[in-house]
């Protein structure tokens, strides 16, 4: 049998798996014996020792043995079967709401019984509700106690724990006879102190009673570490292979800096050292004959857009077109306005393509892109529609790219794909994010991208002071807004609702608008929310940006893309309802000028523990990367990524927060494995990714 044959053995090899059972098991992602063995327990139960009934404690999983004293059907609010069990140290009740006549008849007085469950306080003292139990039949004794801890597996409808344990026991027998191949040579990874793959899997499915269960569950046991390391190496290999596939394409060399030098000379400020460093990295990438794949991270207000402009001007100078795509019209409009301000003096027209554009203007823009007279276009999802064709697309810039699906990003890249004498040519790709990405996520989810960080703010910016206040302080907060606006600055008031419904959010914002208009009669107040037409929203935002309005009431639509340097005060109500990343993005709307800015977070009591932790982080730091790391700890990687594709973090055993320290070594092992042992790459990818290495094609 082949050394990696566990993955080629279907589950119907096991006793008890017919077509119906196999279909149910596929819901858990279980298709073969290897899948089953890597489907690990999330907790363990100790069924190796008997606890006297007189020593029972509530809500502690235990095994008891005794005799059935009585079994009666009782009628109360719900019909139930009550069985009394005694062992000489005490008596306890078993209660069943779902039962059959045969079950009641089996619980005959005097029969030996063994019960497993968690007793809880009930009407008759401690009770076991629907426990697992075994009864001795005739003169047969009860079966021996378990020798190992009992695993509890993630399951689904129609698949019981008993079924999973039975199938896993059979699979472990196959494992001993056909151990899986060790795919990471000891020359690449010192695994001394770690068990073999066979021993690790056996330990995780069948730990002994004296094994440190807490270490197994916390991922600190050598058996878990053995599997985590291999899985992380496989994920890094998937990223590296995907990157190699992308780099195999040809791309135009874009090296000119004359246009950007002219832009830089006209700016009323100097670039920060971080901006200059990142621009140099982009220029080096775009001067290569293969496509740039670079992620630029920069906290709110760090100057990412100007860095993107440098890349765009290099492409335009070389005779190529640029497409900049943003997830919302508001953010896209902000980019369009910035680029027009910078590029119009250079004689470059910035074209616009979004859902709100009229049919005639859309046709004109599409024609200009197709014939090459349009050098640069800024837009939203409208950019990758079939009607949009480019003459010579050389650079795509995608902002807040985690909000786009994989296929949407690919569709934009494909618009610049064509055959040349060098092979297939594709555009360079620049990805921007103002959402600082924790290092572990950057290495795992964006591991195929080179990463640049703009880690320096423009000079003169002051850290934002953040205060956390109960809702009862609302009148004083309104007074503070009045004082700030009367002094010549501007303010935001952000309304948040748990409901995702734009209609409900709009209603809440309108109610606040009416309240604050009445409370602040001397101020001009504007309102924007997601239900407004784009034109009306833009007009109201423009009145606030120009200083005609002092206070802007808004929903979270202003999270990104709003830049009003004179705004120095931000109020967020129901702040406890938002995640850290969103709180940080919203706070970044102030502090964009030279004046001291403030953010007031209003909360409603009682605060949950997570709510308290989130608001404390916001109060204590303005560093987006610190906030991102804390957010990852609080929410976990899956929720942190939100709209990204579900396959992006399909770790079965590794945990990005818990196993952060292993990420760098895993990347190094993956690099060496590709170079020194390429024949082991595909088996590793098959074992862990099931062909999923294409899962996040940028």
UniProtKB/TrEMBL annotation:
BP GO terms, sorted: DNA recombination; DNA repair
Protein name: ATP-dependent DNA helicase RecG
Coiled coil feature spans: 499-526
EC number of this enzyme: 5.6.2.4
Biological source species: Alcanivorax profundi
Alphabetical UniProt keywords: ATP-binding, Coiled coil, DNA damage, DNA recombination, DNA repair, DNA-binding, Helicase, Hydrolase, Isomerase, Nucleotide-binding
InterPro entries associated with the record: ATP-dep_DNA_helicase_RecG (IPR004609), DEAD/DEAH_box_helicase_dom (IPR011545), Helicase_ATP-bd (IPR014001), Helicase_C-like (IPR001650), NA-bd_OB-fold (IPR012340), P-loop_NTPase (IPR027417), RecG/Mfd (IPR047112), RecG_dom3_C (IPR045562)
Its job: Plays a critical role in recombination and DNA repair. Helps process Holliday junction intermediates to mature products by catalyzing branch migration. Has replication fork regression activity, unwinds stalled or blocked replication forks to make a HJ that can be resolved. Has a DNA unwinding activity characteristic of a DNA helicase with 3'-5' polarity.
A GO molecular-function descriptor: 3'-5' DNA helicase activity
Helicase C-terminal domain mapped to chain residues: 487-633
Enzyme class: isomerase
Family that this chain belongs to: Belongs to the helicase family. RecG subfamily.
